[in-house]
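Q: Predict the assembly, please.
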Amino acid sequence: MSAAEAAGAAPAVDVSPFVTAAADGRQTLHLMVHGVHCGGCVRRIEQALLADPAVATARVNLTTRRLRVAWDGPKEVALRLMALLGGLGFRAVPYDPEALRSSDDSAERQLLRAMAVAGFAAGNVMLLSVSVWAGHFQGMGEATRALLHWFSALVALPAVVYAGRPFFASALDALRHRRTNMDVPISIGIVLACAMSLFETARGGEHAYFDSAVMLLFFLLVGRYLDRRARGRARSAAERLLALHVGAVTVVEPGDRQRALPAAQVAPGTTVLAAAGERIGVDGRVTDGVSEVDTSPITGETVPQPVRPGSAVFAGAMNLAAPLKLEVTATGEDTLLAQIVRLLEVAEQRRARYVVLADRVARLYAPAVHTLALATFLGWLLIAAVPWHLALLYAVAVLIITCPCALGLAVPAVQVIASGRLLRGGILLKSATALERLAQVDTVVFDKTGTLTLGRPTLDLREPVDSTSMMLAASIAAASRHPLARALFAAAPDVPVAPGVAEVPGSGLRCGEVRLGNRAFCSIPDTGEAAGPELWLAGPGCAPARFAFTDELRSDACAVVAELRAKGLAVEMLSGDRAPIVATVAQALGIDDWRAACSPAEKTARLEALAAAGRRVLMVGDGLNDAPALAAAHVSLSPSSAVDISQNAADAIFQGDWLRPIVEVIDVAGRADRLIRQNLGLALAYNLLAVPLAVLGFVTPLTAALCMSGSSLLVVGNALRVRGRRG
Amino acid sequence: MSVLVYLVPIALALGLLGLVAFLWALRSGQFDDLDGAAERILFDDEDG
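A: Predicted assembly structure:
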C-alpha cells in the first residue's frame, strides 16, 4: 500500500510538459503506472478515467504497465486525471514514449518479422523438397525436379536475404573488427548453400540445399528471438523502475507554482518540495519544515533522523512526518547519489568482462568449423580430384551439419523456460547471464535492513507495556501517518481513533494533555543513544511508557539461512546499521561472520576481497548503499521493495515478504546450468556422429534436414526438463 | 504433372496470405499486450 500512500500524500504536480497535442486538439499523455497487478486494476483505472467527460480514450497495457490517455480540451485536464489516479491508489509517472523506444525494441520486432518470413519459407520449401525426395524413389522426371527446385529458389532466396539480415550484419561487424563469432560460419554456410543450390538448379543437378538453408535460419531465429525476449522482459521492468526514479522532484517556482522536473535538470539553489511519505530526489538543505527522515536506504541505519531548517538531507532518504522545503545544494555529479553511481559503474565494468559458457564454446567452435569445411573442400578437390562444384557441395554439407542449432536454440530455450518458471515464483531475472553466474555461487552475502529484515518498524512485544497505556497510545497513533505511529496502531488495530489529535511535525502527537512522541517532546531525560526507534507516551497522572520498535526479521529468514548453509554455501552479513542492532540479528540467524557500520565503499571492498580469494559471491541487498556492492558481486539479488537504483544494479529481483526465492533461484540456476551443459554435450555428440558422414560426402539434403530437426528437437526437449517435476 | 504449374503457385499464395496476415497483426499492435487481452475478456461491457 506504500504506492497508494505516496500518491495520496504527493501534491498534484504539473505534468503538462509531457502532454502532447495532436493537430485536431486531442491531448495525449503517456504514464507508467505503479501498482497495476491484474485485469481488475486495469478495469478500475480505465473506468475511472473514462467516467471523466473530457477523456476520449484510456488504455492500460498490462504487460508493460503503461497507460495512454487522450482527451479533448486544455492540457490542464492532466492534473485532474493524475489526481484521479492518485485517489485510486496508483502512482503514475509521466514518460516520453519516444525516449523509451529503444533500438532494442525495434530489433525485437525485426527478429519476429524475420522469424515469420523464415517460418513461411521453411514450410513451403520443405513441402517442395519432400516432393523432390519422394521423386528420387519414384522416378520423378528431371524437368519436374528442376521446376520444383526453381520454385524453391523463388521462395528461399528472397526469404534468406530478408530473414538472414540479423546474422549477416552481426557476422560482417565481427569480421570488420577482425574477430569471429558464431554468426560467421552461419552466414557463410547459408550463403554458400544458397549459391551452390542455385548453381546446381541451373545445371539441372540432383541436390539443392534450399530447404536446409531456410530451416537452419528459422531454427536459429527462434533461438535468437527467445533469447531477446527473455532479456526484453527484464529490460522493460528495469525501464519502468528507472522512469519511476526520474521525475520525482517537485520544484517550487516563484509564486508557489509547482512543477515536476527530472532530478538531473534541477539547478543548485532551486527550492524543492518533499511531501511526507515521499523519497527525496536531491541533496539539499532544509529551508522550511520540521520532520524526520528515514535514511535507511542510504546508510542502512534504522533510527529515523530528525531534521529542521538548516539540516542537510541526501537524495534517496524518505521524508516521514511533514512536508519539507529544501534548497538544492548539489545536483548531478556532486550528489551522494552520483558518487554511489560512480562506484556502481566501476564495479559494473569489472563484471561486464564475464563471458557466458555458450560464447566461450563458440570461440573455439567457429574456427574449428571453418577449418573442417575448408579441409573437406581441399581434400575432395586435391586428393579425390572430383569436380570443384562437387567438392564445394560437400563442404557446404559440412557447414550445414555443424551449424550450431544446439548452441543457438537450446541455450536460449533453457534460459527462457527457467526464467519463466522463476517469474511465476515472483523472481524477475534482469541479466541474461544471471542464471549461469548464479549456478556458480559458493558464498551468500546479505545486507540487513530491508533484506533480512522487512525494513519497516513493528512494535517490539518483548518489552511489556501495560494495556491501558497501549490502548491510549494506539488510539492517538491512529490519527497519524508516521511509520512508527502506524506500527503502534497496527499492534492494536481495534481501538477507536482518539478525537482532537494534533500533530507536531518532527516531535509527536498531542491529544489534550497527553503526548505521544520522541523523548524531548515528552520531557523524558535523554539517557543516551537509543538502541532503536522508540516512542514515548506521557500524560498527567500516568507513568511515562516506552514503546520500542524493531525492524522485524522476514519470517523465513532463519530457515533460508539454514538451508543455504545446508547447501554448503558460506553466509555472511554486511550492514550499514549500528553494531548492537546487527549483532542481535546475526545472533538470531546464526550468522557468525558479520560486519556493522559499513559504508558503500567498505561493502564493495569486502566483496572484492572475497572475489580475490576466489569466492563466487551472491550479494542480496536493497539499499542505495548496497548498489555498488550489488554490482561488484559475482551475481546479485534485490527484493522488489528495494530502492530503484539497487533494483537496477541487481541481476534479479524477487517479490513478496519471503526470502525463500533466494533458495529457489539457486536451485533453478543449478538445474539450468546442468541442462545447458547436457545440451552442449548432446550437440557435440551429434556432431561427432554426423560430421564424418558429411566430410566423406554421404550427406544429402534429406539427411541434413533429418539430422538438423532431430538434434534441435532433442535439445529443446531436454531444455523442457528445467521446469522440474513440480513445475 | 503439368497441374503443378498452377497448383504450386496457389499453395504458395495461400501460405503468403498467412504470412501477410501475421505481419499485419504484428504491425497493428495485436501482440503488444499479451497479458492484458487475457484479462479483458472477463470485463463486463459498460453499456452492453
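Chain A has a mean pLDDT of 80. The first strand of chain A starts at residue 20 and ends at 21.
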